Amino acid sequence: MEFDLSWILLGLPVAFVLGWLASRFDLRQLRDENRRAPKAYFKGLNYLLNEQQDQAIDAFIEAVQNDPDTTELHFALGNLFRRRGEYNRAVRVHEHLLSRGDLGRADRDRAQHALALDFLKAGLLDHAEDALRRLEGTPFEAQARVALLAIYERSRDWPQAMAITQKMQEAHQGDFSARQAHFLCEQALAKSAHGDTEGARAMFEQAVKTAPQAARARIELARLKQRAGHAREALDTLLELADVAPVWLPLAVPLMVELSLATGQGEKVFTLLRQRYDVMPSLDLLDGIVALDTALGHDSSPREWYVRHLEHEPSLVAAAKWLHDEKLEHEQFHPQVQRSLDQAAKPLTRYRCAACGFEARQHFWQCPGCQTWDSYPARRVEEL
Questions:
Q1: Least C-beta-crowded within 10 Å: which of 184, 273, 298, 299?
Q2: Residue positions in the annotated binding site for Fe cation?
């Protein structure tokens, strides 16, 4: 049977036409899909800019379904879930990204960081710690260490907090010596509470060496020495504080007055407090001066010191203390007037956090409100 070449000649154009139609169909479908994906993406972006998060999430989910390989959409969706407080959904998005084998190193590190943030916001500190530790050696390492430090401080894991600050200091992320001194003080106080006086003293002394300008370590060390019966050593420790960090001296005044009287050095401390008061007038220094003046039997009256203070510093607190022993023309009304002044002056004797404004009757080394260290000045609200 002879092969008819005419069929080949007829078939070639037909095959060409069918191939061309198929390619046009595929290209049109691809264009439609690509057109739908950006449309959903821009729709979600528009909703996001208009703060319509519910509609934005729906649009981004549609875009992810049309193009599941788009990492940026996953990140946007995960961040939206986190902002809305839907931490479980945010975790699933970022874990899905991490499970992909084709994800690049940069995107993998970014997804790991986002996952750590999800756990932090959800309060899952154990999971957050594990996720943050995986960021060592990545571009997010510095941020991860800051977050880890916050976790360790929040959980009062002072040895781990000390270790992470040492890494941060070696990486030149800042000077953490003052904070390390606080960590040592926290551990020393725990040892002291359990009866380990020697261990506590060693840690307080290490804190002093770590941050010589830090007042807390010296004050706590002085208290420890006083309880151990070493009043003279305790007073010497506070006198060192007056030399290296005089701005914090008002916090040590009550203990210093007590120790000076116990060791017979009242006149020396009285002179020191007067010198410091002349440089930086303070209500606490003034109270110390008045207490020693009375205890040492000087000729001056406590009221005179408060009047001198009022001549240079208008103070409702000092005025109330002056009035306490003053005889009024209508003495029968003295208790009511004194009670009213004391009530009005009470808020002025508080300490205020310089970071968040949280006020407290006592001085805190770490603010209970914002957790910032050394944010409480050694001065009362009225003096700020």
A1: 299
A2: 353, 356, 367, 370
